[in-house]
Design a protein that fits this description.
The structure holds two protein chains of two kinds.
Chain A: H1 3-27, H2 29-41, H3 43-60, E1 62-63, E2 83-84, H4 131-167, H5 169-183, H6 187-198, H7 202-229, H8 232-239, H9 244-252, H10 257-280, H11 289-299, H12 308-335, H13 337-343
Antiparallel strand pairs in A: 1-2
Chain B: E1 4-17, E2 20-33, E3 37-41, H1 48-55, E4 64-72, E5 75-76, H2 82-88, E6 93-96, H3 110-121, H4 126-139, H5 145-149, H6 158-170, E7 176-180, H7 188-205, E8 208-213, H8 216-222, E9 225-230, E10 233-239, H9 240-245, H10 250-257, E11 307-310, E12 313-315, H11 318-325
Parallel strand pairs in B: 3-8, 3-9, 6-7, 7-8
Antiparallel strand pairs in B: 1-2, 1-4, 4-5, 9-10, 10-12, 11-12
The chains are: A mainly alpha, B alpha/beta.
Chain lengths: 344, 326
């Protein structure tokens, strides 16, 4: 299956999951009120996250052919390459030969006239690619890092944490040993080693980030399960003849959902930042904001300085992280049992 | 004599302490008949709750049922397989816990939790289970049962939650209801209502009830028979009047004297000197010997056997046995 078809299917799956989650939230009064309260507290941050998520989703839907065809310069554009919705918002050959400043008419060095004068809102990079276009495409990479890694981390941590906390004994010892071992390694070194071993594809980088970041959440899950296991309603469920599997699914897991939501939101921004650091070390994912920032190391030493590449990526990264963190804090305030009491 | 629902014989449950296993439930015998209430009385930590959990085979690790027999309508529970035992819990034997505040899962509506309890044991549709839940709520005197069905536990008061627990435990019409301090966590006025409700439903359904409590007032209110427990052993057992009016064991007598009464205002309450020894320090003789006002030399060396005072009244005490022999 071509990769762009797979990507389209993933988008479909994500949209379906979102609709299902939305319906689920509507059905339960608790989640409905939590969602409403979130929208009331952080409308702007929530809107920014939603906008960026939409951009990321639109950039993941792509197909072959159609569109602009040959551009103004008459260059032959390869139309057999799939292009996403975001790509199609720009001309197919929206590229210069090298740097150009935002809204410039001529190239930054040399003064050759541009193909698209006054059209590059944020200028172009060293290869003449439009910076606005690259920044928009970076959104998808950021969401890919945060989303895919969370999709690895959360089920892993839940499975290990719940089983260790609930069943205890030898298995708990093993899981705890595993967590302590991982936690005792410097995570950046472990990350680099894993990426060296696995390769540098997006999936591999996310897997490596997953391995290094599940421990914290797993520990929280285990501790919470240990507490829940002893609670009266779990004992009462046992006295009613409920099976262990059903107790875990119906009485333990739902009481961890708030932790899952909080962890997901807080993990997300941390992961996007980690990737920026990896990119800076040269082992990040292609097309990420981190990589754009990494490139800027040379550009900052040029004279006159080339700032738009660094600026666009940094502002985008900052906006996403700030918005996600604001939403995350609000989510924690709303769902955390300790602050919950004040709300009720 | 009516039919026997629960018959516990020589039940022993042990926990490890100091490298050996101590019996926190030591050779306990209990019998509860259909439509009757047996009150199991004793101080905190005397093994009342552990006895109840042993009957359901829910003793938490590292505790272990060591021996004896638990028969429910003649069926030996200690011999059942794990799945058989699970099917029996909630269906034939139900249990109400002390803390209504935490006995309901906060993330599900109370109605859906009762529906779960019904559908766990009976193949009925959700709609049918729902209808029965509302009916049970109504019988448990929960006002506006339809609306309460969709309420979350935190939206209900403690008394209302305990009514839900009562409704839930009666959902499948169990033969035996174990109520572990069902009213301890409630206000006095609510206590009376819940006790009234329990008695009413117990009579309607003809259940046998094992009522665990440390409150002799509740015993007087509800029980037909009383079993007094001290440090894992039954020290006295008999009919309500026999035990409350004619207590023979020094511990039971001490308990009764320690109860506050309106008529004795101003006088200091009687107390039993000393504290309950912790399980690892239990003596080889009578476990009450160190606090007993009538202690004999033999008490420190020999564990007393049960003495029959009347066909329905027994006690485990050397001093009483000697009196009876004379």
């Amino acid at each position: 299956m071509p990769s762009h078809v797979a990507s389209n299917l993933v988008v479909l799956a994500i949209l379906t999951a979102l609709v299902a989650a939305g319906l689920g939230v509507r059905r339960s009064r608790f989640w409905r009120e939590a969602a409403r309260s979130l929208a009331r507290r952080r409308p702007l941050a929530l809107g920014v996250v939603a906008l960026l998520a939409t951009i990321a989703l639109l950039d993941s839907i792509s197909w072959v052919g159609g569109g602009a065809g040959a551009g103004a310069s008459g260059d032959v554009v390869s139309l057999h390459k799939p292009r996403s919705v975001i790509d199609r918002m720009f001309p197919a050959d929206f590229q210069e030969r090298s740097y150009s400043a935002p809204l410039a008419v001529t190239e930054f060095y040399g003064g050759t006239p541009l193909r698209y004068p006054r059209r590059h809102l944020l200028g172009t990079d060293i290869l003449g690619r439009d910076v606005l276009h690259l920044t928009l495409k970076g959104t998808r990479v950021a969401f890919l890092i945060g989303g895919l890694t969370s999709a690895i981390v959360i089920p892993l941590a839940l499975a290990f944490g719940i089983s260790a906390g609930y069943f205890g004994g030898r298995w708990d010892d093993f899981v705890f040993f595993l967590m302590s071992t991982l936690a005792s390694m410097p995570s950046l070194l472990l990350l680099i080693a894993l990426i060296m071993a696995l390769g540098r594809g997006p999936l591999q980088v996310c897997a490596a980030l997953g391995v290094t970041s599940w421990v914290g959440f797993c520990r929280v899950t285990r501790g919470e399960t240990l507490k829940l296991r002893e609670l009266d309603y779990v004992q009462a469920a046992r006295a009613l003849g409920v099976s262990e599997a059903r107790i875990i699914l119906r009485h333990v897991l739902p009481n961890l959902t708030h932790l899952v939501v909080i962890t997901f939101v807080l993990l997300f921004s941390g992961l996007v930042l980690s990737e920026a650091i990896l990119s800076w070390l040269g082992i990040g994912i292609d097309g990420s904001w981190g990589q754009m920032i990494d490139q800027a190391r040379d550009e900052l030493s040029r004279d006159p300085i080339i700032w738009w590449n660094l600026g666009a990526a940094s502002v985008a990264l900052f906006t996403l992280i700030l918005a996600v963190n604001l939403v995350g804090d609000a989510v924690r305030d709303i769902l955390d049992p300790r602050t919950l009491r004040e709300r009720l | 004599m009516s039919e026997l629902v629960l018959e516990v014989r020589d039940l022993v449950t042990t926990f490890p302490a100091n490298g050996q296993r101590v019996s926190v439930v030591d050779r306990v015998d209990l019998r509860v008949e259909r439509g009757r209430v047996l009150a199991l009385v004793g101080e905190s930590g005397c093994g009342k709750s552990m006895t109840a959990l042993s009957i359901l085979r829910l003793v938490p690790r590292p505790g272990r049922i060591e021996g004896g027999s638990v028969r429910l309508e003649g069926r030996e529970l200690l011999a059942l397989s794990v799945p058989e035992m699970r099917r029996l819990r909630g269906h034939d034997v139900a249990m109400i816990f002390q803390e209504p505040m935490t006995s309901l899962n906060p993330v599900h509506t109370v109605g859906s939790q009762v529906v779960e309890a019904i559908r766990l044991h009976e193949r009925v549709s959700v709609a049918e289970a729902r209808r029965r839940t509302v009916e049970l709520f109504d019988r448990a005197r929960i006002p506006d049962p339809e609306a309460r069905f969709a309420a979350y536990p935190h939206e209900l008061s403690g008394g209302m939650k305990q009514r839900v627990m009562v409704a839930m435990s009666l959902a499948t019409r169990p033969k035996l209801l174990i109520a572990d301090e069902p009213t301890t966590a409630l206000d006095v006025t609510i206590q009376a209502q819940i006790l009234e409700l329990l008695r009413e439903l117990q009579q309607q359904f003809g259940m046998a009830v094992l009522l665990i409590t440390h409150d002799l007032g509740i015993v007087n209110e509800l029980a037909d028979r009383v079993a007094v427990m001290y440090a894992g052993q039954l020290v006295e057992e008999g009919g309500l009047v026999e035990v409350l009016r004619g207590a023979r064991h020094p511990y039971t007598q001490g308990l009764l004297r320690a109860m506050p009464a309106l008529g004795r205002r101003g006088e200091p309450l009687a107390e039993i000197p000393g504290v309950v020894p912790s399980p690892e320090d239990w003596p080889k003789g009578c476990r009450f010997a160190s606090r007993c006002p009538r202690v004999l030399p033999v008490c420190h060396d020999v564990d007393p056997e049960a003495t029959r005072l009347s066909p329905s009244h027994t006690t485990r005490c050397h001093a009483v046995a000697r009196e009876e022999a004379e």
